[in-house]
Amino acid sequence: MYKVKLTEFVKKMNLKSLLPDIDTDGIMIEQSGVNRLALQLAGFFEHFDSERIQVIGNVEAAYIKQIPEESITPLCEKIFSFNIPCLVFCRGLEPIPQMLDMAEKNGVPIFTTEMTTSDFIANSVRWLSEELAPRISIHGVLVDVYGEGVLIMGESGIGKSEAALELIHRGHRLVSDDVVEIRKISDDTLLGTSPDITRHFIELRGIGIVDVKTLFGVESVMYNQTIDMVIRLEDWNREANYDRLGLDEEYIEFLGNKVVCYSIPIRPGRNLAVIVESAAINYRAKKMGYNAAQELYNRVTGSLSNNTETEKDK
């Protein structure tokens, strides 16, 4: 189970603390969801997701003002007894004094933001989903090619970094070299990024470490990118049966998610950068509904069908 410090969340969302004396470094967030205090304000606490960040918007704030004076203090005491990570007021709203006092008594920080409730929830869930996502680290190179996240894999020394450098020289962008951290954002989305210590660096055998951001500019690097396809580089084997049409796709699995994978044999004279570019463009065309291999197959079968009918007419 991954955790993130509340301090990092506050900084990312640009929240204003109403209880600055409370230390947020020791408060950890473990849930990516966000909960709007609704039924809890009416006294219903069954199935209360107290481990989530709690949010109050216009509707909740208006309801709080209608709660009788003698009921508001016990209600606040009940809410903050669950040891919630924090409470956030959206649209610049601020809590009533009783709520502020009870939060301070229980050591629960309260924040306010100018964002609308829906925007705050959307931004929070998106960021927390990335930070708390299951993850693995693999050996490979991740490059953005024409907007597609291409993960280049293969044995050490086969030429992954050299291919990535040529792609960067051709205008594409580096995400990570050598080690790629893969996070499962959803059942159909994998996000790749680089460890902080090696970010923007490429290792070239015989040359050493190259700082891509410094040499090629900020437009040549990315912080993260979805992993849309995998290119597996392997030594050329004359006896191997390589796919020459592309009708049947191969897949590789990361964290339970399947990603289309192309095995590319390596031999002297092959331009890897152009091959990777072509694979990315072809994959993009397939996503848009055009499959060149299927088109060729249809033409061949159509031609054979026409020839058969011609022979019958004779």
TrEMBL record:
Q: Which residues form the active site?
A: H139, K160, D178 (proton acceptor), R244
The alphabetical list of record keywords is: ATP-binding, Carbohydrate metabolism, Kinase, Magnesium, Metal-binding, Multifunctional enzyme, Nucleotide-binding, Serine/threonine-protein kinase, Transferase
Chain ranges of the HPr(Ser) kinase/phosphorylase N-terminal domain: 4-128
Describe the family membership recorded for this protein in Swiss-Prot or TrEMBL. Answer: Belongs to the HPrK/P family.
Looking up NCBIfam families in the UniProt record yields: hpr-ser
- Record-annotated residues binding ATP? G154, E155, S156, G157, I158, G159, K160, S161
The protein's role, per its UniProt record: Catalyzes the ATP- as well as the pyrophosphate-dependent phosphorylation of a specific serine residue in HPr, a phosphocarrier protein of the phosphoenolpyruvate-dependent sugar phosphotransferase system (PTS). HprK/P also catalyzes the pyrophosphate-producing, inorganic phosphate-dependent dephosphorylation (phosphorolysis) of seryl-phosphorylated HPr (P-Ser-HPr).
Quote the PANTHER family the UniProt record gives.
HPR KINASE_PHOSPHORYLASE (PTHR30305:SF1), PROTEIN YJDM-RELATED (PTHR30305)
Q: Which Pfam families match?
A: Hpr_kinase_C, Hpr_kinase_N
Entry's EC annotation: 2.7.11.-, 2.7.4.-
Q: Extract one GO molecular function annotation from the record.
A: magnesium ion binding
The record's catalysed reaction(s) read: [HPr protein]-O-phospho-L-serine + phosphate + H(+) = [HPr protein]-L-serine + diphosphate; [HPr protein]-L-serine + ATP = [HPr protein]-O-phospho-L-serine + ADP + H(+)
What does the subunit section of this Swiss-Prot or TrEMBL entry state?
Homohexamer.
Q: Where is this region: Important for the catalytic mechanism of both phosphorylation and dephosphorylation?
A: 202-211
Decide whether keyword Nucleotide-binding is in the record. yes
What is the protein name for this chain? HPr kinase/phosphorylase
Q: Which residues bind Mg(2+)?
A: S161, E203
Q: What region holds the HPr kinase/phosphorylase C-terminal domain?
A: 131-299
* Upper classification of the organism: Bacteria, Bacillati, Bacillota, Clostridia, Lachnospirales
Its domain comment says:
The Walker A ATP-binding motif also binds Pi and PPi.
Miscellaneous notes for this chain?
A: Both phosphorylation and phosphorolysis are carried out by the same active site and suggest a common mechanism for both reactions.
Q: Where is this region: Important for the catalytic mechanism of dephosphorylation?
A: 265-270
Identify which cofactors the protein needs according to its UniProt entry.
Mg(2+)
Q: Which organism is it from?
A: Anaerobutyricum hallii
State the Gene Ontology BP annotations. Answer: regulation of carbohydrate metabolic process
